[in-house]
């Protein structure tokens, strides 16, 4: 919700105005350690509250988490916009080559499809599979360290038979994005060899 609101330049209420209920997680993009909020009709929220207590949910000292959530909400626009910029940087060149500029037979990404903090990378050909590419991006080899001077482990998700999903959050910097691009370039080159 917050990523969509920032990307569209609207308030979250504009997006949710026709919804019966809304749940917003404060971790992930907003950077709080935990927590979520649920909004809806009074009876719906009351039933959710009852079920949460029935299942043992609840927490003491929740004010500490609420403070972290509040800071995340106050900084959401700047933080999420930075995540969106990093995702776009990954998909296309700015100061260094993005996935598009790798000119690789292994993978490609559509800059037009990058609307928020998510980049879908198409894995071309039959090898490596998205799962194999993810494993190679996560692993660090002696050869990589010797060649690039960095030991970088990148977590990606094999989304489909031909697609890998990359997602940015508050803890991934522009420098981390550049390191991930360098890692992808290294992995693509090694796969082509």
From TrEMBL:
Record has Lyase as a keyword: yes
GO molecular function: L-allo-threonine aldolase activity
One Gene Ontology term, aspect cellular component: cytosol
Domain of life: Eukaryota
Domain Aromatic amino acid beta-eliminating lyase/threonine aldolase: 1-123
UniProt keyword list: Lyase, Pyridoxal phosphate
Record-linked PANTHER family: L-THREONINE ALDOLASE, L-THREONINE ALDOLASE-RELATED
Family under the similarity heading: Belongs to the threonine aldolase family.
Protein name as annotated: THA2 aldolase
Organism, scientific name: Penelope pileata
């Amino acid at each position: 919700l917050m990523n969509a609101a920032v990307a569209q330049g609207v308030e979250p209420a504009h997006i949710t105005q026709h919804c019966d209920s809304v749940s917003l997680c404060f971790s992930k993009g907003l950077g709080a350690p935990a927590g979520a909020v649920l909004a809806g009709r009074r009876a719906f929220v009351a039933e959710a509250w009852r079920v949460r207590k029935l299942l043992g949910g609840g927490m003491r000292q929740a004010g500490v988490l609420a403070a972290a959530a509040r800071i995340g909400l106050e900084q959401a626009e700047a933080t999420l916009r930075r995540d969106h910029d990093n995702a776009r940087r990954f998909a296309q060149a700015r100061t260094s080559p993005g996935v598009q500029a790798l000119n690789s037979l292994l993978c490609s990404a559509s800059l037009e499809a990058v609307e928020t903090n998510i980049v879908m990378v198409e894995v071309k050909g039959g090898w490596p599979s998205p799962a194999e590419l993810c494993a190679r991006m996560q692993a660090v080899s002696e050869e990589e360290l010797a060649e690039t001077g960095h030991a970088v482990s990148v977590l990606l998700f094999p989304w489909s038979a031909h697609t890998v999903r990359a997602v940015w959050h508050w803890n991934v910097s522009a420098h981390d994005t550049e390191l991930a691009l360098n890692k992808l370039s290294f992995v693509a080159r090694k796969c082509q060899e």
